[in-house]
Hints:
By secondary structure, this protein is α+β, with helices and mostly antiparallel strands. Helix content is 27%, strand content 32%. An 8-stranded mixed β-sheet has the order 1-2-3-4-5-6-8-7, with helices on both faces. Strand 4 and strand 5 form a beta hairpin.
Amino acid sequence: MPWPVIEPLVSERLALEPLSLDHARPMVDVLSDPSLYTFTGGEPPTLDALSTRYAAQIRGPADGSQAWFNWIARRHDTGALVGFVQATVTSQAQAQDTLAEIAWVVDPAHQRKGFASEATAALIGWLHARGVTRLTAHIHPEHTASQRVAYRQGLRPTSSIEDGEVRWESPSHDERS
Length: 177
């Protein structure tokens, strides 16, 4: 399947820049707060680790079975990086669906300002315009801020739990139209 080419996105307060290796150094600071890892586990990345991760994300999966789309979110007013949004897109041939697993992270210094919802809405709009019909996200059952972001985007929790996280799903885009 030919995957779309990632492009910059713009929302009211944010510019979503396609991930590049140049983002690694400033994103180390954005991702440095240990509280970001309360629900996901792990720890703040080093520059080397983040550079390696970003190189792999930009390259994408070797077999072409999925497409990885990653954007860094930057405020228009201050130029500050606030976090990222990402989508892993998979074509579901038998179901005639294109599914995107989405995720978002916002620096605690920029949380509670609606940036996660705004960036995620821009991501979802881009995905829907390119034929994605279903969305999922995996959210820790105690992570109420991420649950609110998902709910605002039309995702609803399911009974499925994977690695301690609840699977949230949207109805297909066609069902919502």
